[in-house]
Amino acid sequence: MGILKNHLLSALFLISLVGVFGQNTQKEWMLGPFHRPSNALPILTRDTLSTFFDPILKSSVPWESMATFNPAAIVRSDTIFVLYRAEEKLGKKEIGGHRSRIGMAFSLDGISYKKKKAPVFYPTPDTQQKYEWPGGVEDPRLVETKEGTYVLTYTQWNRKLPRLAIATSTNLTDWEKHGPIFEQYQNGKYHQQETKSGAILTQLDGNKLVAAKINGKYWMYFGVPHIWLAYSEDLINWIPVETHEGKLAPVLSPRPGYFDSWLVEAGPPPLLTENGIVVLYNAGNSQQIGVKDLGNRVYTGGQALFDAKAPWKLVDRSQQPFIRPKLPFEKSGQYSEGTTFIEGLVYFKSHWYLYYGTADSRVGLLSTKQL
After folding, report:
1. Regarding the domain delimited by 7-367, which CATH topology (the fold level of the hierarchy) does it fall under?
2. Is the pTM value of this prediction over 0.85?
3. Residue 2 CB partners (closer than 8 Å, separation 6+)
């Protein structure tokens, strides 16, 4: 099945069992430990001078003038490609009131990144405009199939309802949109319900992360404030896992008393390992019932382990976050409470690289390699 073997990571575990904010948070099954680069700075920031001709407005717009954050990542031909959410500043509107498109940056060494001049994914006058305009397209996650097709999960935001949607490509720049994932399921049963953050299960095949099957099906963890589960035979048409009452069945939920007391949200594509399915997730803290000294509404990162044969069965879970806002650029920006919103994961030159959004404003990087 090409399941990742522990010996690929054992050397990394022996280096250090200290998490990125100085506490021993590492369990044997977890990915990592991850480190910030020395003298860490954002790898991607906004550009107020960058312009793009918008096909709906039919005019040139400053497409990344507000922020660049919440990145997906993939390795192709020994190059890391980062697809990031770029916001166009629209007056003094608050979070959710600007317009998002998805830009691309690339790196040959995992350290320095160069942006493409124009977005690679954005609303157009097509069948999805009613779901994607005027808010745009947000928060990508990205996987590759064994056949070389790229599958993008993203949020469509028309400023009325966020919907999780699918698009596919063979080259990362030309995309076919397939629409909201639950539009056709049981006459749109969940089509008018908020859905977002779709993270499709992967496995390490050589040095590449590819979409993985369990029992002949692909699996996706999605949603907020709980994480739910869906499965598919083709990565385009998805069926949610439901309870016997016909409701979405949460497989991971907030925990009073912990760093994830407010909400949990799927992070980068999960990884199938010999220990089980490792799900890296975003966690929101509610200070009143969570961790007092962490702050209110602060986003950190956790890890959960699910059964490799039953993707809905929770086996273990981190007791502390393995990353939290620490540096000034992680605690300043649109989201002043601070976020380390993990969303992109690649295996590059024998090390893990984890990409995250900071305070809804910039892109940061962690790695199991000391950069």
Report:
1. Tachylectin-2; Chain A (2.115.10)
2. yes
3. 203, 204, 205, 212
